[in-house]
């Protein structure tokens, strides 16, 4: 059950393009993490350009205002899965949206079954609902 937070610069993409960003990120998650269909939890936040500062930590990566930041909160994944996700995501965004590889930043964070409540005040992973 990955939760994806997708951050974009406001006004750079149409609603259809934002939906495409979400779909690409979801498709890559299904392919690399093996999540089931309809296991989809995504939140898009758009920011003024001055509200996002994604420097390169001295790596020489120059970003544009087309930058996409994807944060994936998920149960632990292997290093191989994370590498496969990053590679597949860059390729998919470049192929389908002509996004420069420098403009895609991905951050993974781990959580566990007890960290989720999908609603009703229950912990469905722990209570047998999932």
From TrEMBL:
InterPro entries: Tauto_MSAD, Tautomerase/MIF_sf. Pfam families: Tautomerase_2. It comes from the Bacteria. This is Tautomerase family protein.
